[in-house]
Amino acid sequence: MCGIIAYAGSEPVTPILVSGLRTLEYRGYDSAGIGVQNGDGKSAVTRALGVDDLAEAVSGQDWNGGAEPTVGIAHTRWATHGGVTIPNAHPHTSAEGRVAVVHNGIVENYIALRTELSDAGYLFSSETDTEVIAHLIARRVESGESLAAAVRCAARRIQGASSFVATSAAEPGVIVGVRLGNAGGIVVGIGDGFNLLASDVLAILPHTDLVVYLRSGEMASITASGAEYSDLSGMVLERSPARISRNFEAAARGEYPHFMAKEIAEQPEAVSSAMRRRVDFENGVVDLPELPYTDDEIRLIDRVILSGMGTSLHSCMYGAQMIEAVTGIPAQAENASELRYRSTSLNERTLVISVTQSGETADTLAAMDLATQSGAKQIALVEAEGTQATLVADGTLYLGAGQEIGVASTKTMMCSLTVLYQLAVYLGIHRGTLSAKRAIKLVSDLSRLPGLIAEMIDDDDHCEQLAHDRLGDKRHLLYLGRGALHPVAMEGALKMKELAYIHAEGYPAGEMKHGPIALISDDMPTVALAPQGALYDKMVGNINEVKARGGEVIALATYGDTTMPGLTDEVLWVPEAPEWIVPMITLIPMQQLAYHTSVALGHNPDKPRNLAKSVTVE
Ligand code: M6R
């Protein structure tokens, strides 16, 4: 997804912007650009199709007057309107280059605005929606308004969710940023003799840990010496910076060839962190002080909706099954992009649980808005601190996974499963549906999770060998699972698609004979999730059906299973584990198979094509 970094200070700005862009690369992008104020009344703009090319281009520049500029804005673009071309890369400028803008999000009414501006004589040099913002601001600045006032007017004219940052030659040294809705955030970084604006706190952390997160409809105007805040009516806002405690070093890849490998390996620690200060292993109790509901309010809940997208939706599917089993409350997982447009009967007795590692996924936030309008109770499970989902929810359960740089979610999914597990136990205890004995058992089961995950991670070689020997040359794969292993099968298929670009389908195994079975051949292996459990015999039946049609089967089975080796082509072993823990540990080989297949095929698993870490457009 697009990224923004802007700096006003006294240091040479281009190295700061380039290194900020490198930090933002993980979000996914296809072109990049920098605009600096170099004293000749214009923004000097440099654009390229990659940050490396951009860095090379700006390093050779002879700035006007010989002095290095100290104020500038920069952007990584993830194309929405117009192809991946240099003219479409940001910053976009007004015709004389006096106003420069970088933008995340979509201007929904850009065609009408473009027509209006073209009729008024403004010339366009890109296919983007963003360029209308530069011209709207320029029109106001030309009529004598301040940059902040002009940005405010432009912000009121555009429709849809956007965040953008602008400079004007008429006000050297000033940068104005605004957040409108949920198209990614704007974070203000407060320094000593400098200030920054960025879409992502990671780009700010190397410079300062004092930050202010803008809310929707808020603006920040920064210079080297200060930051002022206002809303779209022009009212001045008082905002106090908060000190954030993120360990930037943790983002370094260390000994691992890819961030994804590192993040898979970090999962035992990540789930421990997700339990910290919440689970009392001694007394078999889960405490979630972040939740504001009384026991009476919890008892009144008559429906639970879990909402998310992609991997987070798969976590929701697991959470729905466990919450319903433990609390008896009807629970269902919903794709947020569908939920947001559906006629629903949410009300104050509904609990909506939104899962989103980024906290900024546009569809998930829109579904949360719907829940707010309906008066439903709202909990968010989020990794990224201070993001929009956390501002909307009644209470936020942070995942505690630590920064995930790989675009594909791994440890954040594992942590969301861990937190959903805790939430199910918490709701069961406070609703009175879970006996003390059963609660103690579930909590004790959870205590085994870090160790079981570590055991699975150590057993990585077999996945690597399978990736090379059996999967790399395939074009299609089928993943089958039942019950709480169905979402894990879906996730396995999603990971394989995302990282290895192999077509993969995840199905509830019972559905296979209703259609997908027609695809079975020696060209389409099946990954069958068949550990011991209530539905084991059913899975054996499905595996037999695949084998009878000449299909190759890679099974996941519990150590000691004597049936699977004779029945299938390969077995990946999982340790014996409690019912609700099994899906979590089975997730590890799903991640490893996709990771190793991606690497075997020569892809970069950290930056899969066409994907973004944070999907802030619909
Ligand atoms: O930030 P979120 O958890 O809301 O993101 C949701 C999806 O975009 C995300 O899980 C996506 O499917 C990832 N590429 C999964 O690896």
Condensed summary:
The protein has 618 residues and is α/β, with parallel strands linked by helices. Helices cover 36% and strands 22% of the residues. The chain has 3 domains: 3-245, Aminohydrolase, N-terminal nucleophile (Ntn) domain (Glutamine Phosphoribosylpyrophosphate, subunit 1, domain 1), CATH 3.60.20; 251-447, Glucose-6-phosphate isomerase like protein, domain 1 (Rossmann fold, 3-Layer(aba) Sandwich), CATH 3.40.50; 458-600, Rossmann fold (3-Layer(aba) Sandwich), CATH 3.40.50.
Largest sheet: 8 strands, antiparallel
Number of helical segments with 4 or more residues? 21
User: Could you say which small molecules are bound to this protein?
Assistant: 5-amino-5-deoxy-1-O-phosphono-D-mannitol
Number of strands: 27
Overall, the morphology is: globular
Radius of gyration from the CA trace?
Answer: 26 Å
Distance between the termini: 12 Å
Q: How many individual domains?
A: 3
What is the strand content?
A: 15-25%
Approximate helicity band: 25-40%
Average pLDDT works out at: 92
- CATH A-level architecture of the largest domain: 4-Layer Sandwich
Strand arrangement, major sheet:
3-2-4-1-10-9-11-15
Low-confidence stretches: none
CATH T-level fold name of the largest domain: Glutamine Phosphoribosylpyrophosphate, subunit 1, domain 1
**In CATH's first tier, which class of the largest domain applies?**
Alpha Beta
Helix/strand/pairing class, anyone? alpha/beta
CATH-assigned homologous superfamily of the largest domain: Aminohydrolase, N-terminal nucleophile (Ntn) domain
